[in-house]
Write a structure and sequence with these properties.
Blueprint: H1 4-9, H2 18-29, H3 34-68, H4 75-82, H5 85-114
Region (Disordered): 1-20
């Protein structure tokens, strides 16, 4: 069964892609400008990369739980899942992506505020 992060980062069909639908919604709300188009594309890429990294981190912890829950845990299996280098790299990626997403959302917010004909949404929505 795919994880939530995996399902969002790699949709099974184009029609069942909530991430794509979300960025298309943002795109429709932004002014029709080249910088807005680029911003939305970069935001979508960042979100997919972040979800992919999150899925890898989740998979790592699933492997640890599986190794611990074995009927007879082996020293080799425990040492194998203890090698955290890959998951640490993915966490670094995730930290960078979170920063990028925050910056891009801030830019999108500025474009929405500057766009004529948009009414401010209630805070938190």
């Amino acid at each position: 069964m795919p994880t939530f992060a995996a399902a969002l980062s790699r949709p099974s069909t184009p029609r069942s892609d909530p991430l794509r639908e979300a960025v298309e919604s943002l795109s429709a709300a932004l002014p029709a400008r080249a910088d807005a188009v680029v911003l939305v594309e970069l935001l979508e890429d960042d979100l997919r990369e972040g979800l992919d990294a999150l899925g890898d981190v989740e998979a790592h912890f699933s492997e640890v739980i599986e190794a611990l829950g074995a009927e007879q845990p082996s020293p080799f299996a425990l040492l194998s899942v203890a090698d955290e280098q890959r998951v640490l790299q993915r966490l670094d990626t995730l930290m960078g992506v979170v920063t990028q997403v925050r910056r891009r959302l801030s830019k999108a917010s500025g474009l929405l505020r500057a766009s004529p004909g948009t009414s401010p949404a209630p805070f938190g929505r």
